[in-house]
Write the structure tokens for this entry.
Amino acid sequence: MKRFKIYTENKNTRELIELVKSELEAATIYFATGIWQGSTEESMVIEYITSEVDAEIMRRRLRRLMEKIKIMNRQEAVMLTIENVQVEFV
């Protein structure tokens, strides 16, 4: 399984959540305080987990979502991390 995390500034929160809902069938959103170049900013992390088979398709889809977020938040950059994870359901 792959875990993707999109890191963005927490601006336009309601609109951003609606955008994520329209683009992804499932996700977890975390709110945090980030530090960038010595300043603090409210940040948002959007987490999405998918199978290894669908990972490359989702990576492209998430990059398109990131472009929309970047424009919406008027940001210089939005960051994506990709990790291998093991998942168990009970």
